[in-house]
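This part of the workshop introduces the protein records we will be handling. Getting from the letters to the C-alpha cells is the skill we practise here. The record below serves as our worked example for the rest of this section.

…
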Amino acid sequence: MKTSTMSKLAILCLLAATTLFSISDSLTAALFDQSDISVSEKGRLVLECRQSEDSIARNDRVLLLNGSDTLEVFASEGRAIEQVIEEDLDLDGLTELLVQMDLGGSGAFKEFALLKRKDGKYETIWEETGFKAGDASIEDRDGDGRLNLYIGYVNADVSPQKDEVAVFTLENGDLKRDK
C-alpha cells in the first residue's frame, strides 16, 4: 500500500472511532440523569435515574451527596422513580422522604415508600404497592396544622371504577390510613 493510502485509511479509522465514542457518550447521557431534590446542611439530596442498557428495567436511586461522601438513601430495584417528596410529616423537625415509583407494564400500578431519617441514615418505614394510576402529594388539606399523605388512585375493585383518594397520617413512627 502506498503511504498516502495508509494515511487516508488511518484518518478514516480515527474519524470512525471519534464518531463511535461521541455516539456512545450521547447514549450514556441519555441513559443517566441526575436532578436535585433539595439542598441543606446535610448535603444535596439527588434523584439519579438510570436506564439499564440492555433492558427496560430502571436502576433509579436517591443519593445524599456531601462533599466527597455519597450515601445511597434508596434504590428502586428495577422500578422507575417518578417523584420524591421531602416533608416533615410527623412534625419532629426531621424530614421524611416519600418515593413514588411506576411498576411498569400496562396496569399503570404505582408503589410508594416512606423513609424516615434515623441515626444519620434513612430507613423504609412503610411501603405500599397496588395503587392504580396513583399520584401522591403531602399537604394539609383539612387545615389541622398537620401534613397528611394523599394518594389519588383508580379503585378497580368497584364497578364502575371510580377515582378515590387514600389519606395517611404519620404518628409515632407509623403511617396509618385514615378511614
In short: The chain has one domain: 3-177.
